[in-house]
Amino acid sequence: MTAIGGRVALLASVLGLLLLGPGVGAGTPAANSPRPVSTYSIVARDPATGEFGVAVQSHWFSVGSVVTWAEAGVGAVATQSFVEVSYGPRGLRLMGDGKTATEALRELVAKDPHPEVRQVAFVDAAGRVAAHTGEGCIPGAGHRKGTGYSVQANLMLTNEVPEAMARAFENASGPLAERLLAALEAAQKVGGDIRGKQSAALLVVRAEATDRPWTDRLIDLRVEDHEHPVAELARLLRLHQAYEKMNRGDEAVAEGKLNLALAEYSAAEEMFPDNDEFVFWHAVTLVTNDRVSESLPLFARAFRMNPNWMILVPRLVEVGQLPDDPELVGRILAVGPQASLSK
Questions:
Q1: Nearest to residue 151, comparing CAs of 175, 172, 126, 168?
Q2: pLDDT digits (tens, 9 = 90+) for 220-234
Q3: What distance in Å separates the CA atoms of residue 282 and residue 298, rounded to the nearest whole number?
Q4: Which of 128, 187, 233, 319 has the fewest CB atoms within 10 Å around its CB?
């Protein structure tokens, strides 16, 4: 049998097992899909902040729901190719129990009846990385490990993707999320997935777990089905950053730091000037801090973008989020389209 014929036979055999689904018989791989899921991904630990992240793009629906795994204080995992999802939660559990990335990955690969079709990467709490690309992964397939990160790809148009991703990540600056995104963008520029594009995901968690686990996941963004998923993921990341500014503004208000709050709100508006939510709540903050004259142009702008904000104004009075002052409410509503009041 030729080398090509052997590979085709191997993949056909594995495909047959996968189509039967998990639990069919001894040695059957518990994969979610009979086809290669994910095409290029990166796992990394930020040496400056200690944050862990994983990002991925694929010509496959909802790739983030199966490929990306991370836990604060533990590490991150990407599991792809003929994907075995259990590498994610099991890998994190092993690393959480004290095993290094290499030890955890080696243990799971040893127990996998079909490691030849898996592609997996781990980064642990100390920034150690481990990666596996099985010989049955569809070319172009490969990975490259660097200090605190691993990039991996399969089913690529060319073999240039891992090197392009590594170079982009190493040369990028800024927060971890932006550098992960730079790696995805670089992969696409050199051809990316031979099948095209469909979904992408970005996950970043804290360096250390807290007693408020719901805050440990810093960024969790998914593009499930889009013509340009990486570009859309970049837009969502920027929108996430704008909402973070709004959140910091709210925190500053609670601490009595009005000038800081207004600066954060203004920065968010500059990033997304057409976001009426930002404009409206900025105006509300001004009113509740006796800066009514400054608020009116913002209310007028918000009302033009979405007249339903006018309906909300009296409701905010009812729950104490605006002063119970009919004259003030009248001044606010007077700057908007009057037809909206009849709703």
A1: 168
A2: 999 999 999 999 999
A3: 8
A4: 319
